[in-house]
């Protein structure tokens, strides 16, 4: 008979996962190795002692568990890898080289760029918005982007997606479950406040580190074909998301619709311009890291959350910075009783507090490997934590706590 092990009342599953996160934090130059080692330890323990929750013991339980999770993992893999190619298309279009001429050359230029990322994320996937912001930042700051500002780019993308059912996987899950997009849009009350709190200190930090170079590169010619390719890939993702949710919601549980749409667009547009496949190895390492953490998190014995309350919603935001927000959102939807606008903000924006807390953060770390340090992210990205708390309590004060109505 399979017997779970607990240390001081804490299931060993959580201890192993916590040690994995600690390994990622301490050995930021070997994050993939730490994540894979932790995943192997969790799988080994589940095989030997506890089994896989409702999926049963042994290899059969593991197989059934992975069948249940494969769509989520496949979507993350395809989106992260696909948007890495999209980011390079966008960079090669030479539009980022023109951006210095369009943005103010003081700290307000940094604020404006963060606002643009926020707005983009409301319509695009937050991964794509963060990568666009990171790519533009590389050019307007001439390659010297402060880690605090990179954290702000990720936070802006996550904030922008928090109130849009097409801007984040968690809000899309709520939409699929029958929650009105008008309910989710309440999250923008907190998200806008959070943006106002974090944008100025992050931009001042970047201005001191490396200001915007106002003059655009001479002789820059925009490659409009690549611009069309970028637009086509993003439109394919948006169209697939909206169409699947409105017409074929059951398909989203059985097939990675978004990722497949992105890659179909990439392959078709490769006839116009060849993608830069050289970005794949680096993007692959970051993607494998995130998939290892998400897989390990999905095996944690979290069958029930604490009773729904605004305090629980606040706490879930902090947990989202180290624990994948997709299973947390799924549990909250199953449990009910939450204010979905407030929860969309907490689980969406909360992951910004640590670099691997959201897929947008992992995507940006593929562009800037120096961000893979938990300590530096927290020290220099301190405005994000402050912004999260301020945004939450402003929304709570203005809108109150409205528990889940039948949906």
TrEMBL record:
<keyword id="KW-0915">Sodium</keyword>
<feature type="transmembrane region" description="Helical">
    <location>
        <begin position="147"/>
        <end position="167"/>
    </location>
</feature>
<feature type="transmembrane region" description="Helical">
    <location>
        <begin position="377"/>
        <end position="401"/>
    </location>
</feature>
<feature type="transmembrane region" description="Helical">
    <location>
        <begin position="7"/>
        <end position="27"/>
    </location>
</feature>
<keyword id="KW-0739">Sodium transport</keyword>
<feature type="transmembrane region" description="Helical">
    <location>
        <begin position="250"/>
        <end position="271"/>
    </location>
</feature>
<feature type="transmembrane region" description="Helical">
    <location>
        <begin position="224"/>
        <end position="244"/>
    </location>
</feature>
<feature type="transmembrane region" description="Helical">
    <location>
        <begin position="340"/>
        <end position="357"/>
    </location>
</feature>
<comment type="similarity">
    <text>Belongs to the NhaD Na(+)/H(+) (TC 2.A.62) antiporter family.</text>
</comment>
<protein>
    <submittedName>
        <fullName>Citrate transporter</fullName>
    </submittedName>
</protein>
<dbReference type="InterPro" id="IPR004680">
    <property type="entry name" value="Cit_transptr-like_dom"/>
</dbReference>
<keyword id="KW-0812">Transmembrane</keyword>
<keyword id="KW-1133">Transmembrane helix</keyword>
<keyword id="KW-0050">Antiport</keyword>
<keyword id="KW-0406">Ion transport</keyword>
<feature type="transmembrane region" description="Helical">
    <location>
        <begin position="70"/>
        <end position="90"/>
    </location>
</feature>
<keyword id="KW-0813">Transport</keyword>
<dbReference type="InterPro" id="IPR045016">
    <property type="entry name" value="NhaD-like"/>
</dbReference>
<feature type="transmembrane region" description="Helical">
    <location>
        <begin position="39"/>
        <end position="63"/>
    </location>
</feature>
<feature type="transmembrane region" description="Helical">
    <location>
        <begin position="187"/>
        <end position="204"/>
    </location>
</feature>
<dbReference type="Pfam" id="PF03600">
    <property type="entry name" value="CitMHS"/>
</dbReference>
<feature type="transmembrane region" description="Helical">
    <location>
        <begin position="110"/>
        <end position="135"/>
    </location>
</feature>
<feature type="domain" description="Citrate transporter-like">
    <location>
        <begin position="29"/>
        <end position="333"/>
    </location>
</feature>
<keyword id="KW-0472">Membrane</keyword>
<feature type="transmembrane region" description="Helical">
    <location>
        <begin position="283"/>
        <end position="302"/>
    </location>
</feature>
